[in-house]
Please model this.
Amino acid sequence: MVRALTLKVLDRDAKEVSRVEVDTDMLKTYIEKKKDLGTDWFARILYSAFASVHPVVTTTREDGGTDASGASFCYGCCRCHIWIGVGTGTTPPTRQDYKLEAEKDVKPATARYIDGTGVVIITTSFVFNQDIDISEVGLFLCDGDINAGGPGARTLLDRTVLDAPVHVAAQQTLYVEYRIAV
Model:
């Protein structure tokens, strides 16, 4: 799998002030050149693990029959959700990271998948009461009830440290989008 990350700063009128993209060219090249295409079934299952309301996922077996799952494939439960966090940490990421270095906020995210694209899209946005320079972004899988006010136990799936911080002025919106290709 390959992932790309886009951050957009929007003013109060939702006009784009700035944009930072990480690995979008790599994602585009990966999709164009990939020969062993991931199936829509796999993408649907991945999407169901990230969806805040776990959809019924219908897959087709090798014998042509179908199976439907009413819960996500995430840890065998139906209480896992995807969240995105942002922070001010600057230490380069490692495979052993389990949290953001200097988290400033974390929000539940929305996932979607359009059959045939091979890309699961995960988004959320943040508004801060004061100016802030964001330099790290994290994607988390969280257990627990989203409606209980917190993400519960979190597992860090991705931590990206930006080449340069993204400045977000007070009351501007920071829109964050992950795209994951299968």
Remarks:
- The two ends are 5 Å apart (CA to CA).
- The helical segments are 24-33, 40-50.
- Residues 40-50 form the longest helix (11 residues).
- The longest strand covers residues 154-168.
